[in-house]
Amino acid sequence: MSHTDDQGRTERHNERMARKKEIMDARIAAASEHRGVFIVNCGNGKGKSSSGFGMVMRGLGHEMQVGVVQFIKGAMSTGEERFLRRFPDEVQFHAMGEGYTWNTQDRERDVARAGEAWEIARQMLQDPAIGLVLLDELNIALKYKYIDVEQVLADIAARPPQQHVIVTGRGAPQAVIDAADTVTEMTLVKHAFAAGIAAQPGVEW
Amino acid sequence: MSHTDDQGRTERHNERMARKKEIMDARIAAASEHRGVFIVNCGNGKGKSSSGFGMVMRGLGHEMQVGVVQFIKGAMSTGEERFLRRFPDEVQFHAMGEGYTWNTQDRERDVARAGEAWEIARQMLQDPAIGLVLLDELNIALKYKYIDVEQVLADIAARPPQQHVIVTGRGAPQAVIDAADTVTEMTLVKHAFAAGIAAQPGVEW
């Protein structure tokens, strides 16, 4: 590439970036409301729970108190649980503890456990000292109607105004998507599992 | 709902779960290879970087050594950086430190900084003591051709066999998607930003 080409490329890049900066500055100026956001991570791809735990990490970096309830996972010890239990003063962590429903095959027990877990979640959602609440795999409990979605949405709506809440899991009911501020669908493009690679510590749990 | 209805529902649920368990057991048996996976989080939705940091948390919970390079972010102090710097024995953290390119408007400086950051990433990718490497926003550096994609993919392919690597950011080149084991597109369904809510600590950084 000649010096002239290189210079032209740099100038075009700089013009594009200047326009982008103007657009971003205007958008940032327009988005001025500071309040707790309700975030949903759904879809069949990887990253729903891990994104929630990444936000937990961010919250901890900003000296927030954090609450976590895992609605399905918990039969096995996960990396996130082992790590977060190192911070009992900063993190309230509750894992429902009965594994996936296809391992328990007991609807009544699942309903009872999910209800108990929701009571713990509700206490977090009533505590203004908690800046961020992660309700991991809640969508699955809602999809199977282990917990009443209207009750869940009422409790989330009644939380302290500055508290963020993150709901994860496949099969989010439409009412949950409608109520949320930010919704991401984690879309599966490809997954190592399908190519014969096992679920592994640090990646899947 | 009558008792009979309730019983029928429970039986149908149990049958469905039993079939699901069979399918899952077969899939788990087939996925038996244990090796480092190459994961890409792309798309326009929220959750690409935060999912990477959630996997960092999982890795730390499994006593892994972790390496993080942030290719674009770093002009401001993020929650993830503040948190991870608490663990200097477990986490090597490098933030490139010049903010988004639309704030710098200086292609040559961006190219130089991205190249320096890649040298640090390459050292992590050559270190078998590091179990998980997060290359945050690398896709953006590749999209703007600040770093050569073929060199990047060669370095990733040559990493220790058990090391996991996660690449995040919009605009992933097709060659990166082709080379990865697991790819998730974070699809934007809606975002609080568009409704006038500011980017906030704990959520966006």
Write up this protein.
The structure is a homodimer. The termini of chain A are far apart. Chain A is built from eight helices and six strands. Chain A is globular and about 70 Å long. By secondary structure, chain A is α/β, with parallel strands linked by helices. The longest helix of chain A is centred in the N-terminal third of the chain and has 28 residues, at about 5-30. Chain A has two domains: about 1-30; about 35-195, Rossmann fold, CATH 3.40.50.300. A six-stranded parallel sheet of chain A has the order 3-2-4-5-1-6, with helices on both faces. Chain A has helices at about 5-30, 50-60, 80-85, 100-105, 105-125, 140-145, 150-155, 175-180; strands spanning about 40, 65-70, 90-95, 130-135, 165-170, 180-190. The model of chain A has no long low-confidence stretch (mean pLDDT about 90). Chains A and B meet through helix 1, strand 1, helix 2, helix 3 and helix 4 of A and helix 1, strand 1, helix 2, helix 3 and helix 4 of B. Strand 6 (about 180-190) of chain A pairs antiparallel with strand 6 of chain B.
Q: How helical, in percent, are the residues of chain A?
A: 40-55%
Multimerization state: homodimer
* Share of β-strand residues of chain A: 15-25%
Count of distinct strands of chain A: 6
Gap between N and C termini of chain A = 47 Å
Supply the CATH superfamily name of the largest domain in chain A.
P-loop containing nucleotide triphosphate hydrolases
What is the approximate shape of chain A?
globular
CATH class of the largest domain in chain A: Alpha Beta
The largest beta-sheet of chain A arranges its strands as 3-2-4-5-1-6
With helices defined by DSSP (H or I, 4 residues minimum), what is the helix count of chain A? 8
Family (chains A, B): Belongs to the Cob(I)alamin adenosyltransferase family.
Domain Cob(I)alamin adenosyltransferase N-terminal (chains A, B): 7-28
Keywords (chains A, B): ATP-binding, Cobalamin biosynthesis, Cytoplasm, Nucleotide-binding, Porphyrin biosynthesis, Transferase
Enzyme class (chains A, B): transferase
